[in-house]
Amino acid sequence: MFTSPSVRACVLIAALFTGAAHAETISVAVASNFTAPMQKIAAQFEKDTGHKAELSFGATGKFYAQISNGAPFGILLAADDKTPAQIAQEGKGDAASRFTYSIGKLVLWSKQDGYVDANGEVLKTGKFQHVAIANPKLAPYGLAAEQTLTKLNLLDAIKPKFVQGENIGQTYQFAATGNAELGFVALSQVMEDGKIKSGSAWVVPAEMHEPIRQDAIVLNNAKDNVAAKALMDYLKGDKARAIITAYGYAF
User: Fold this and answer.
1) d(Cα 132, Cα 226) in Å, to the nearest integer?
2) Taking 60 as the threshold, does the pLDDT of residue 44 lie above it?
3) What backbone torsions phi and psi does residue 132 show, to the nearest 5 degrees?
4) What is the Cα–Cα distance from 153 to 61, expressed in whole angstroms?
5) pLDDT tens across 204-217, in order?
6) Which domains does the chain have, with CATH numbers?
7) CA distance 102 to 108
8) In sequence order, what are the residues at sequence separation of 6 or more whose Cβ sits closer than 8 angstroms to the Cβ of residue 165?
9) Which residues are CB-neighbours of 87 under 8 A, at least 6 positions away?
C-alpha cells in the first residue's frame, strides 16, 4: 500500500515524540573509584537509549548513610558487595536487581616516573614521608590497602605515614598533587585504554587482599523507574563492559 511522504513524516515525528515522552532520568550514587568509566558509560547510555543518568560521586559508606536517611538516589553503584547486600536486607532496595558490575583492582601509585617499582619494593625502603590511603572504615579500597600492608608485615611501620582521604577520589588527589609521594588508589584512576596514564605503579596482586567486588542495586525510590532498569541492563552489555575493562576492572 502506498504511503505518502507527508504521512511517513508524521509517523516518524510521532515516534520521536513518543520516545522522548518515555525517556526518564535516574539519579545514581557512584563510588568514587568508578568516576571516569561511569561518566563515559552515562554519556553513551543517554545517546543509545534517550534516558539520562544523573551522577553523584563519593564514598560508599557515606552513600549508605545518606540512603538510610532518605536521600533520593535511584541506583547505588557501590565500591563493595556488602553495602548493597545490607541495603537489600534492610528493605531499602530490590534484592533481585543486585549484581556485580565490576571487580576493582588496587594499585600503589606515584606521580613520579620510576618511583614505584613493578613489585612494590619501594614500601620496604621507608624512603618516603607520606602514603595516601582511603579511610578503611568507609572505603573498600582503603581496607584493601590495609590488608595488603598487613600481609607484607609493614602496616605498623607505615601507618604513621598515612595521609587519609575520606574516599578514594580524595586519596588520589593527595598523591596526584604530591602531598603524598605514594598512594594506594584504584587502578581505574590511573589507567585508561589499558595502560597507566602517567607516573609509576605497582598493581597489587589480587591475593594480597579480599576481592573488591563492586555491586549495583536499584533502590526503592526507583522501583518503577524505566531508566533504572535500562541502566542496569546497559551495565551488563558489551559497550559498558568494554569501557569498564579499559579502566582496568575485571568481572
Assistant:
1) 40
2) yes
3) -80, 135
4) 27
5) 999 999 999 999 99
6) 5-103+212-246 (3.40.190.10), 106-203 (3.40.190.10)
7) 20
8) 132, 133, 134, 135, 139, 142, 171, 172, 173, 174
9) 64, 67, 76, 93, 217, 219
Give the contacts of 173 (CB within 8 A, at least 6 positions apart): 165, 179
Which burial class, exposed, middle or buried, applies to 89 when counting CB atoms under 10 A from its CB (0-12, 13-18, 19+)? exposed
- Give me the amino acid identity at 183: G
Rounded-to-integer distance, Cα 195 and Cα 191, Å: 5
Check the CA dihedral 100-105-106-112 and report its sign.
negative
Asked whether residue 129 carries a pLDDT value surpassing 90, the answer given is: yes
Distance CA 178, CA 110 (A): 8
Distances (CA, A) of 126 to 15, 23, 90, 116, 161: 65, 55, 44, 12, 10
Q: Indicate the pTM of the whole model.
A: 0.86
What is the side-by-side strand order in the sheet with 200-203? 162-165, 131-134, 182-186, 106-110, 200-203
- By the 8 A CB rule, do 72 and 29 touch? no
Q: What three-state secondary structure class fits 2? A: coil
Of 106, 132, 118, 102, which Cα lies nearest the Cα of 209?
106
Integer Cα distance of 79 and 242 in angstroms: 19
**How many Cα atoms occupy the beta-carbon half-sphere of 228 within 13 Å?**
22
For the record, the C-alpha cell of 190 comes out as: 590511573
The total of other beta-carbon atoms located within 10 Å of residue 98's CB is 20
DSSP 91-141: TSB-GGG-EEEEEE-EEEEESSTTSS-TT-THHHH---S-EEEE-TTT-HH
